[in-house]
Amino acid sequence: MQDVDEDDGHDVAGFTEPLPEGDEEASNLSDISGVSLGNNQPQEVEEDIDALISDVQDHVFGEMRLPEDVLHEVQSTWTAFLAAMPSRDAAGEAIYGVVFDCAPELQSLFKTARSVMAMRFVNGLNLIFSELARPTSLKVVTETLGFQHLDIEVTTPRVCLFRDAILDVLESEVGSILTPQGKAGFLATLNYVGGAMIYVRREYGDRISVLRTSWIAASIARLGDDEDDNGEDVGHAGEPSGKQEMFLFNAAVMGFTASMGWMSSVLEQFENMVLNAAKSNRLQEECDVLSLVLVKSKEAIVYAEFKAVMLASLRSLVPKIWGVEHEVAWTWFWDNLERMIKSQVANLKGQQRSVDRFIKSLDDQSIAKLCRDVYKRFFEQAPSGQNFFKQSTTRLYFIAGKVLEMSLDIYLKPREMIEEISALGLRHVGYGMPTELFPPFIEAWSQSIQSMQVDARAVSSLRWSLTLISKCLVRTILEGSTIVMKAINTNSAKRFRKAISIASRQSREQELLKITVGTQSISPLYWAIQSGSFQVARAMLTDLLTIRADRDNYYYGCDALFERHPDILQELCAVRGQGLLPTMLDGLCWRSKWTIHKMRRVNYFVKHLIQNSDGTFNTSILVLVKLNDPNLIRHPVVSFVFKMLWSRMASYSFLQSRIVFLFLVVLVVVSQSILPRVNVQQETNAHRAALFASRMVAYLADLGPLLFSHVWLSVKDVRRRSFVYVAGVLPMPAYLGNLTTLSQLFLVFVMLLMCTQEPIFACLQDMYGDFPGAGLFTTHCPAAVARENVYSVLSQLSVLLHWLLLTDLCIFSLRVCAYLLTCLRVLVELFHFCLAVTFLIAAFSCAIASLGTFLVDFYTIPAGAGSLLRIILGMYENKRFVALREFPRVYSLLVIFCITTLIFLANLLVAQLTGAYKTVYGDMEGYAKLARSSVTVDTIRSQRPRKWAAFLASLKLEDRIEFNEGDVGMAGGIQVLEPANLNPTYEECIHRFGGSTSVENPWPEESSLEKGSLDIRLKRLEKLVVRATKNMMKGMDGGSIGSGTGSSAASSFASGASSGSSMNESA
């Protein structure tokens, strides 16, 4: 200490000079040197002594030197205090408790767990007292401390509270050894530190502003962008043009290429540090994360290298504004950052291993015990936390296990974990988790781990990582907790409308679609849908798709909605029972309330339903078909889209493909049903050649492509493990879930069997043998005759399947398609009838056979079943019925059978078909549209990109379309005319506002638009009646003054009633 004083030119006197009585405390520091500030003129020693003793000094900030004996008293007393406490944590807890007992209002300034803050208190004070013998280092430590508290309002009264609280703790714990000199030394030191923090916050605020403005200027600066007089760029190719490139360029020029690994890590995080320099908590968080990255670096870290490269880069990027103040500010900022990062890197070494060893030492029983202890302590410290941790015990243990896992992963992969934690924090925004619960949660973990009697290093390491995680979560929650998200948590559409009403016109859409914190973002709309807040989600969709306008601009959130959420259709279809999909579809349509020549303008804004952002066909529209909802497909917007796609794009291509198949059907009919029946007795070679050629073309042109297509689709689905299950058991490729493809597959098998049984192929080796009809391509050889029966059955199946597959041509007419679908829908009733008839035939044939009759028609069970079937079909001869009268028992059973089947079941079938038809008739048009829409999507998928691009160009979706005449609106829509009586519209769909047209202003209150509505007026009348009734009740209870009160109440009621009646009349 003596050497330092001599070098600095100051004399340190002893405590021997007598002072006035009653000023003992001042006498103990009569020879403490004053505080000096850099290049300022030195002050008188006595004046600085008096200033430090009397109060906090925030007008200067220099080096403080204590006399040797006072310094020794302060350090020895502090050492004794730490020794007197069970641990440093206990010492910090004591200081923390006294500070906040003296000033409870200060607790709001500290968001970290109690144990963490207590440790910070004791570590910070210990560092200050340990540096008292080195004034220069003490000033650096104090300046860094002030730098870390830039965003906290440090004032003289608050400093005095902290100072007095710390002195109270020292007096209560080590009062016996706390001498007046030591007390005065503590007083001067704490006043010095507090004054320095106030000074740094006040005087260095301009430096923060210089940092921010110069960094933003450097971010938008581009070198080599100078232009000549003609406006042409004269920059040189290869020149660095931004911060990143300039930094790499300067690092290479200065010879720091070997250090680019760790320097790139710092540069990656440097922007967040600069922009959050005034936010000490955020800056400390960034330094902690960077320290975790740097501690893993294998390279030697020389922080001065980064400083030199960064300053050189900034000077090059903003040379016009760079000055001395920039040099000072950036040097000051980096020096403080360097000290913070260095100290943190030094502390982090070995922490990862400690945490890893601790976690690996835990078995399942220990983890379960730790989890129970954590939640027990947490619920004791924060009882309100039980309202948020309502899951099962296994779920709570799972959460605790994830916390332990994250506490280790933050050391292993810090950058990735910060991204995951930010995403987790945004999810907690949606959960409505109060940030006040995080400190007690971390405190519970700290106490529980400490109670396990583990290594102190592991406890501190885990506490540090958990604190960093909680800080990231709290910051993310605070930054992401907008009033819109709070409204979502309450599922209140009214609160949502009130919350969004203050948003500017420009940012209103983003408030509903994207909340960004760091590199992570969350969609309030999607969160409302996924969390079940459907009232708010419905209000959001309505707000986004409401067209608002002022004199200058139209505002419509359709483009923003689909750009942010291209999969919005799938998301809304997943919760279709909540009515969100019709709400969105309603918002895509505008109808004019004016009619011209009995026609009304309608604008369908369907650009994003038709195409993706890259201009390709939007195949996600298929989800509207897969819902199989006949009412939804008839929605005006959906119906318009599919009708347009069918009529202008898909119908012609589909017809082309079916014309080919129609030719094949004709060819199959000719080869199987016509040519074999023409001139059978006198076949010619030309006739046989035509038969052979037609069948070969059918096999090659019909069977070949079908076989190849089904093999390819089957292999594709098997590779993708895409199956559908028959009866929930038998798997088959997913593409066979369609009746058409299943029929095609059956046709493939039938035609393959036809090939194996083809008579012409059987006779190829014996065409000119000794048999009738021998000759070229004959079908009458003995081998062919043996196959004739099998081939004829396969032939008829093939013809029937071809005609069945031809029924899909009915989609060209919705009425015919609806009729066909109706027939298919009521077939199930016919199946039930056949099932009942089959049961009765089996029962009665067995019963008649048991009579022992010798009638030929009923001698055996099969014979009896055949006869009963002929009776039902009306094919049983009447004379046989007459003969059966001679057998009364058989005849009586037949009468009962006929009454049951021909009268009861037949009439029941008619009634069932009528009821089923009435049930499905209303939806048949919708189902027909669904069938056509499915074909439309499949057809357009197979179109060439050039044809699709030409179709989009014909729609002119990029051109703005009119609303009413002369009122040009937005692009992305298609305008059509519809009959005026089809969808009557009496109110203007566009909300128009006057006044300022600034995009920064919010929209005026829309409640004024509803003041004249009947609901509003009725509610107002109800309030008047309630108020008048209360006044009357008060008048009745008023005694002597009741008459006056009653009359006033009556008059109030009368006026309210008259007002209400007038409102109703106007309504």
UniProtKB/TrEMBL annotation:
Residues 64-202 form the Globin domain. Keywords: Membrane, Repeat, Transmembrane, Transmembrane helix. GO terms for biological process: calcium ion import across plasma membrane. Signal peptide: none annotated. Residues 1-40, 1035-1067 are annotated as: Disordered. SUPFAM superfamilies: Globin-like. CDD domains: Mb-like (cd01040). GO terms for cellular component: plasma membrane. Residues 1046-1067 have a biased composition (Low complexity). Residues 1036-1045 have a biased composition (Gly residues). GO terms for molecular function: calcium channel activity; heme binding; oxygen binding. The chain crosses the membrane at residues 655-675, 696-715, 735-755, 830-852, 858-878, 890-910. It comes from the Eukaryota. Residues 27-40 have a biased composition (Polar residues). PANTHER family: INACTIVE, TRANSIENT RECEPTOR POTENTIAL ION CHANNEL PROTEIN. This is Globin domain-containing protein. It comes from Effrenium voratum.
